[in-house]
Amino acid sequence: MRRHVVLPLLALFLVSGLTTPAVAQPEPPPERTINLLVYGDDPCPQGKGDEIVVCARRPESERYRIPKKLREKPEPVGGPGWGSQVATMEQTQRQNLPNSCSVLGSNGFTGCTAKMLEQWAAERRMQQSTGEP
Could you tell me the pTM of the whole model? Predict the structure, then answer.
């Protein structure tokens, strides 16, 4: 019984050993590529041997500037700051506080005169700056 199992396995091993691929030849190293930024009328350097030199030309005014990616300010990660959130909350709650010129809340009427004076001053500034209302 052992012979029946061993012979097919031995034959399979020998056949698979005959079909092994040839050892691959090592590939030559890739060419060397150099990427450069050239400003103004500066010449692009020549490659030595099998080097490939790729030059990107920029205006002379960009030579000493910080790269554009680093100039841009990243957006805040956490959303608006707590100061603006507090100001928004105070503005929305303003109608319930005294001096708000509102029919809601206690003493809401007390701010009506102040609001009318603010509106009058804003209209006056607009008339003086443009000459018309």
Answer: 0.33
SS3 state of residue 36: strand
Residues in the chain: 133
Query: 3-state DSSP call for residue 26?
Result: coil
Q: What are phi and psi of 61, to 5 degrees?
A: -65, -15
Residue type at 67 in one-letter notation: P
Which residues 6+ apart lie within 8 Å of 71 measured at CB?
65
pLDDT, tens only, 99-116: 777 766 666 667 777 788
Residue found under tokens 């959130």: 85
Phi, psi of 129 (to 5 degrees): -80, -40
Residue 45 CA to residue 51 CA, distance in Å, equals: 11
